[in-house]
Structures are given as C-alpha cells and as structure tokens.
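re: ur question from yesterday

yeah so i grabbed the chain u mentioned. its 194 aa long if i counted rite. heres the sequnce exactly as i have it in my notes:
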Amino acid sequence: MMRTLIVTTLISLDGVAEAPGGEPGYRHAGWTFNQVEHLDAAYELKASEQCESTAMLLGRKSYQAFSEVWPDMEEEFADYNDQPKYVVSTTLQQRETHPRWGETKILRSISDVARLRAGDGGPITVHGSLDLVHSLQEHMLIDRYHLLVFPLLLGEGRRLFSDSALPVQQLRLVESESYANGIQKMVFDVVRHP
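ran it thru and got these structure tokens back, copy pasting raw so excuse formatting
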C-alpha cells in the first residue's frame, strides 16, 4: 500500500511560507509569532500530525536548520525527533547528518522519493523545504496538504506553490476550522483521477 505524502506548513493568505518561525534572511521572519496572537487551539493540527506521521521528508537546508534545534525540543517535538528522517539532497553526505536526531537516510533524487512513497509504511510529513515541495508538486507526488493559513498579506517571500506551468490539480477539503485569532485550518487531499 502506498504511503501518504503530506506537506504541512504555515502560510500567509497570499501564499508565503518563508521563515514562519524566524529563520534568518527574510525581512518578515517570524511572522507567525510577531503578527498574530498565539492560540494553542490553532496548533492542534501540529500535535495530531506528529502522532500520525511515521517519517519526515526534508530538503537539505531545512534538515540542517531543524536538526540544530529540534533535538533539544523534546517537549514540543518528541514524536518527530524519534521518527526516521529522509533528506533529499545531491550534496549532503551521511557523515554530515545530525547524530542526535535519529535515523537519517539521504535520497539523491525525486525518483528516490517516488520509490519511498510507493513502499509500505505510514504517512510521511514534509516540513519547510520549499524547493523540495515545488519539485514534489511538479512531479505530482503530494497526497495531502495540512495548512494553517494566517490572516496576513506579506507581499513578498517564497511561496508554497510552484509557479511552474503545471496541470490542474483538484483538491478536496476534508477538514477545516476557524480560530478566534483569524487562523484557518485547511486540510486538503489531492484528488487522483484514474
């Protein structure tokens, strides 16, 4: 049975997904914390997906950024920290993986990702990794989106969705909720046509 590949992200209403947690190099870095009131209920999706996910798929930059922080955040990311990590990179070497962040396997191509997805096992979540997400979109490998949409227009910044000329992909809304701070939870399945 094929695994479910889930892209999970925080996104502005105009589609920006860059540096929501404060990653350096983006002028609006940390926009999820410094622009919108924090409500625990709005982040329940993140807790539930940790329990359901069986592996993480990351691009090299996101892997390197997260692996420096997440292993020390046992309370927040205990389930993710214990999961196998798959990093898509043509340059990362096994000796460069983080020794305290669990089993890590390097995938060298999107074909490797397709083989991983086609294998047995539970859901795989993709965090950050916008270059990887765009490539997955272009190869139609994403099965589900977990989106927390923030009531912000950031104007500039890297966007979640590829701007390549892709075929239309129909999405089916399977879960949604609105929160008092304006955040919208939207869970979409990608509709596959035989």
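noticed a couple things. The longest strand covers residues 5-12. also The domain at 5-190 is CATH 3.40.430.10 (Dihydrofolate Reductase, subunit A).
anyway ttyl
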